[in-house]
Model the fold of this input.
Amino acid sequence: MAEISANTIVEVLQKQLDAIKTSVDSREVGTVIQVGDGIARIDGLKGAMSGELLEFVAAGGKKVFGLAQNLEEDEVGAVLLGDVTAIKENDQVRTTGRIVEVPSGRAFLGRVVNPLGEPIDGKGPIEAEGMRPVEFRAPGVIERQGVNEPVQTGVLAIDSMIPIGRGQRELIIGDRQTGKTAIAVDTIINSKGKNLICIYVAIGQKASTVATVVETLERYGAMEYTIVVSASASDSAPLQYIAPMAGVAMGEFFMYNGEDGKPASKENPGRHVLCIYDDLSKQAVAYRQMSLTLRRPPGREAYPGDVFYLHSRLLERAVKLSEKNGSGSLTALPVIETQAGDVSAYIPTNVISITDGQIFLQSDLFFQGQRPAVNVGISVSRVGSSAQIKAMKQVAGSLRLDLAAYRELQAFAQFGSDLDKATTDQLARGARMTELLKQGRYVPMPVEEQVMAVFAGNNGFLDSIPVSDVVRFREELLQYLRATRPEIGTAILMEQKISDETSDKLKEAIAAFANQFSTSEKA
Amino acid sequence: MSTDRTLAKAASQVYAANLLEASKAKGNILEITAEMEQIFSTVIGNVDLRNTLSDHAIPVTTRQSIASEVFAGYDEVLLAVFSVIVQRNDIMLLSRVAEAYLELAEQALGAIIIDVTTVVSLDDDLRRIIKDKYAAQLGSDVILREHVDKGILGGIILSTHGRRIDASVVSQLENARVTLSKRN
Done:
């Protein structure tokens, strides 16, 4: 702790006293004419701006903030943030000339906060380094550059076939209980030591679910580079509505500033941030509730007409900044929950069209034991492959097509038993490669190990292994390579590709391991 | 109540214009302005009263008698207009009527009405200073409606047409409290 001297006290006192405004406060005032459901209708405030922060003064002097939403001829419709019950009819409302801002800074790492940036983890106040506007203009074309660095999720099925780049927007979509949050949490855990700050925004979830996620992140040492923004199901609709924007605003602080907290530039690079919005379907529901109570006209599925714009302006804030702007990035992983696999509903189609690809999780795969339950056939990543390391491209380049061909053959093979050897081999390889992609929760795999595992499958080392032993083979092989041939993994990581020399060494090591591997049954 | 904006505006103008004619005749334009605002504030601030006065299930005569009992002692012309508002179920137009009446009243008086809140009553000197200052700024004569509120501790609060200039001691102390409680 810094030493407190008389000089320090004088300096602080001077600064605070200078900050006291003695000038006359001139503002527009209005009167609350109706309040309920977190919405207030205000008479007056003719000069209020859309999205402006309004100050409600309750009887007894308590101040509550609100957000101006509907600007009408005689009145303003506003949503209340904070203690909704304190505001009554006839209370005074003042304009502030500001828009909603959230505190941000390095001290927020490791903390759980509400969408207003107030700590809710009981660990005391947070010292903010500045305020960031909740609504902020997304960078333009000139300020950006192409996605060129990978976000390693540590999930083999994703990193090999649906790679995500830093600055990309990749949707995680699926029914309830298909492992959407698990992928997000795995990605956070795998980001340790990879210069990636993670923001996990929980919207409309049970507080116990959020507590479980926080507990998991703490257990794996991931909270030290993570901020959790929580607007749980019991929070008001306006708080759930601003939660993703508050999360991205906190993330932008790191992207637009260097390690020292000063503005990012070529010399002072910005940081890399990963924002997970879990989930945007609930944010859309909260926004629908707000809009209907504000009496905005309902559109498809009763959502307001601007729900697309709500999501597009949020996701446009995902960016890979140009070198001049510090090369920082903000990757967005929005989550959408579908109902009975219906991706043609309004919100899923909207977010699918906004993002740069989607990871589609399916219940039937989940219950078949294929976990993570990623349907690699319909999952895509539109920009991520340019960020994939060359070694992964070498081994996984054809994996997607091979698996697609396998699924097609598998469907036909069900109708007949007379199959030629080539087809049988292809089916056997496909079954093993599918099995190879299975992975447990919270066990992310480093990229070099992913490369080695897929390499083993591609080169036929799994063909003689029974399908039920494939995962054990992979685990033991990687353990063997870590223990006896660590130079192979290091070479892949250093060179970012599989050279002929590394390829030979890897084949030799895998063959040696395969010879000593005991299967649980005869192949 | 009409949901059409133009019709609602026209209806409010009719109520306000008739009220002004009557108050002009009686010579109590300013008093009616204040009473009109009090009625508006009471109706808006009391959900039960507002719902009762606009409830179709309650006979019109009952609603009218409730209105006249609640606001007994107010100017009889104002009560008559308010009774018609209740009868025609135009309670939600009250804010527009109050605003339209204020505009018409200011035109009729040739001056702008400013509410002044102080801790003690204004003396003639201060009254003149405020009037001169705002008459020069607004380019029109000024009528002060004076209020005394010990809660503001000192200083002055001026408000007109939804704009409020707060130079009260209580606000400045509040600003100081917020600034000093901010962490560096």
